[in-house]
Fold each of these.
Amino acid sequence: MVKLIVNGRALSVDVEPEMPLLWVLRDELKMEGTKYGCGIAQCGACTVLVDGQPVRSCVMPASASAGKKIVTIEGLAGKGLSKVQQAWMDQDVPQCGYCQSGMIMAATALLATKPNPTDADIDAAMTNLCRCGTYARVRKAIHAAAGQPVPPAPAPVEAPNGQKI
């Protein structure tokens, strides 16, 4: 039995102590917002906050998170969206969306420690992978969530075939 604090709720789960936190969240607690990407802590799709720090839950044993405050994407905001989630929407960050919960959790941790991040701060903290390549929009969304000015998107240009790009 492992005792966890997930999104403010004290829970006891009957799992093997070495079971990765990711599978406890997804399979045992039915919190499927945290995604499985690689299983080796490289992509960041499984990022959750443990005592405020971004953690790759695919490699963290459930026993290592016992008694710590775990926040998942489901618990990030009370009612409505968090400022990071709202900025994600406002800046049209998601494409396929698979990596987004991990990205949002990492960005939330960054803003908790650096409320006015520079581009260098963002680049250093955001080690999550995005196969769709939305990194520029991620950066803009983090600046927006921090209340920093965000330059407008460039105006579309017309390709030789007449298509707006």
Amino acid sequence: MGVEERRVMTKGDSPCDFVEYECCRTRNRVLDRIASGPLTEDSALSEVLDSLELVELSIEVEESGVEPTVEIKTVRDFLWLCKAMEFQRQRRVAGKDLGKKSDSQNAS
């Protein structure tokens, strides 16, 4: 596979933004492997992620606030989890934006 580029957290990043970046990077790698043929959505997630990456994924899920209702065993489960984490992130961002608008309206 080669050396993968890792993003370094900067002062303005929240831990959640960094976690979601890592999940997105992994999701893109999985989607590339599905597109090239050796992997399907029914493949075991252990075919894609090594044991350390599986542990990191568990931590990322916990930090994201998403609580999967099923065990993440397959690539399809992983892709669902990524969508759920992205949805959670969008709700958080939308909530922050609404809070900012409300604060600016109250200040007027």
Amino acid sequence: MSTQGASGTKPPVDKVKTRKLMRFWAIGTFIIVFAAMTTYASFWTGFLIFLEPLYWIAIILFAAATAAVLLIHEWWLRRQ
């Protein structure tokens, strides 16, 4: 089955659906990485990991990277 329309062109992309899907995957990835980092680090330190400034810096940097990906994706969709 082809993804092209009757005239041989690609069907229009549903931008709202694409935005929601991208937001879902980005936030889901952030939650999974946050949980993995916390679990891995807490094997050795326990809950003291939450007192480590470097841990929070890493989480904030990853959150900023996730937000940047979402903003770039939003800009890209508006550009098209």
